[in-house]
Amino acid sequence: MSAMMLIRSVLYGVCLFFCQCVAKTESMPSHGIAYRLLSAHAPISMEEPAQSVLPSVPTQSSAQAPASLESAPVLILEQLKKSAPEKEIKPDALQRLVDQLEQAPSSLHAELKQQILAFITHDLSFADLYVLVEQLEKDKLPSLRFAHATVLLRAALLQKHIGQLASAQKLFQTLSGLSESFGKTEAITLLVDDQLKELANIEQVEQRKIGVLLPLSGSRQEFGLLAKQAIEMVFNTSLKDNTRSNAVLPPIELVFKDTQGNEEQARIQTRDLILNTHVMAIMGPLFADESYQAAMVAQAYQVPLLNLSRAEGITRLGSSVFRLCLTPEQQSQALVDLMVDAFHFKRFAVLYPSTDTGLEFVQSFFSAVEKKGAEVVGIESYLYDQNTFTTPVKKLVGRYYLELRQQDLSKEMALAMRQIRKSSVRGAKAYEKAKDRLSAVVDFDALFIPDTAKAVSFIAPAIAFEDVDLVVSEKDRQQIKNSDDPLILSQYKRMVGVHSWNSPLLVERAGKAVEGAIFVDGFDVHKDDAHVQEFVKKFESLTQKKPTLPEAQAYDAAGIFKLILSQNPHTRMAFLKLLSGLKDYLGVTGKIHFDTQGEAQKKLVFLTVENGEIVPFQAHANEN
């Protein structure tokens, strides 16, 4: 078996093991008015698995990252090692192969040895592998001495893959000292030499070099170039050493690498930054698909990485991976907190695109609603490229499945239903007229739409066309402002949304149909704050564009790195500790710190539409 085959086998085994620990996402079924009528207007349950509308996701406790700087994968491996039984020989299948080898004639030894090596490479569990390493080191298994090199190689590659670099280096060094009688081939020798050189390379760190992964070419080039401008704005001034009476430090070198918005390029460029450029830490990438590859490499080499994407669960890869990006969970929780606490809303409906992002928002919104003791009473989906929304809106408000609303039908409607069954043309016309007069069922306080401003600009008029009033007028706003009565506050129903609503398209296309809508964002370009407006002014002068959330997040990430480097850390571990211990960094997106999972935490901003303009939403004194 070649050395490369051994590496592929180890990496495949590791990935398979951890993939089995992650719940699979299923499609989200539709629960509009038809479902609610059949369920006697009961809230959609998240308790009974058979009726749950939520895909299976890990619970907070099962997915929580460790508070220490040890990675979750490492802890799993350590638990396996501790739980491994004390055996003199390994699993039954391996035991049988060893017994056959000891009893077989010498003519069959070569074939049996190959079977044993294949079993160790492909089928031996991680826990068994650790025990086998210990048994061979104590020379308790002389009949398996020929496999010693293969066992050590797999263990060393595994330790390296999960970021245990010191342990991996020790195993490779032990393997380097073995003779051919322990199964050490020329291919293994060459591989071990390369691995030891690579590990020595990893230890080299240029303290003043920072790597930046951005899509600087390809279809996502515009986003990458704007983020690059924001990052460079931070490092255009000299840096003082906060630990030595403000002595001027050597300049910081930013090393930009083009990911091309591509997963493979992200992996290659991350390795290059670590092994060849020897950067202290890395910022980026911007998009989810490329971010997973970069984060896995950074975690394996224990290099601090501050990710700028909304890649789901990326910080769970390990303690070297942090993220500064507004997530669906943060947006959903902030929205629900405001709706329940300020407006006393208790019942919500959801209209969402059937995309991965849409599903992620639905999951997080359901979780946030449940935490606040509220309920989701209706949910409908639509295709991601849909531009007419009559059908999903009708389903949501009970004007589609009319046969389920017998109790609401007038005598005229009942007559029309009887006539239409006889194929009467007159009955069909009567039915259509009666159907148009049937009122919408609006049994929710707020409608959550996790989509773009463009999509919402089509959806809002479709909602109004179905006689669903989710508009808050100037008169309504005054009534809300002057009241502290929860009944009055809760009677004004609204549309609520996410940061992708924050675009001029929203009001330009939807007009009055979005008056009073409230959405959440992580950055307010109009905020009356000197620090924010200085950033906006400088960025606009450089790019002739106003900064948006991604550029603001890139700017804050660069500011955080600059602050950490001002404390002159000498190692990546020192940098990592300073990053994890960051407290209330004042960025343009707010005061930032990182939780134990490596997620940036900050106060979000709320925006609303008033008189055709997007303005900051101000909760009144009675709305808290």
Topology:
Blueprint lengths: L2 H17 L13 H6 L21 H4 L8 H12 L8 H12 L5 H14 L3 H12 L10 H14 L3 H12 L9 H18 L5 E6 L6 H14 L5 E2 L5 E2 L4 E6 L4 H13 L5 E3 L4 H13 L4 E3 L13 E3 L4 H16 L3 E7 L2 H16 L3 E8 L7 H7 L14 H10 L4 H13 L8 E4 L3 H13 L8 H8 L4 H4 L4 E4 L6 H7 L7 E4 L8 H14 L5 H17 L6 H9 L4 E3 L2 E5 L5 E2 L3 E6 L2 E4 L8
Helix pairs in contact: 1-8, 4-7, 5-6, 7-8, 8-9, 9-10, 11-23, 11-24, 12-13, 14-15, 17-18, 19-22
Structural summary, described in words:
The chain has 624 residues and is an alpha/beta fold. It folds into four domains: 3-14 and 71-203, no CATH class; 23-57 and 331-398 and 443-521 and 593-624, Response regulator (Rossmann fold, 3-Layer(aba) Sandwich); 209-326 and 545-588, Rossmann fold; 406-440, no CATH class. Helix content is 47%, strand content 12%. The protein is built from 25 helices and 17 strands. A seven-stranded mixed β-sheet has the order 9-8-10-11-12-16-17, with helices on both faces. Strands 4-1-5-6-7 form a five-stranded parallel β-sheet. Strands 13-14-15 form a three-stranded antiparallel β-sheet, with helices on one face. β11 (494-497), α22 and β12 form a beta-alpha-beta unit. The longest helix is centred in the N-terminal third of the chain and has 18 residues, at 186-203. The chain is globular and about 95 Å long. The protein starts with a helix and ends in an 8-residue tail after the last strand. Residues 1-29, 34-43 and 45-90 have low confidence and may be disordered.
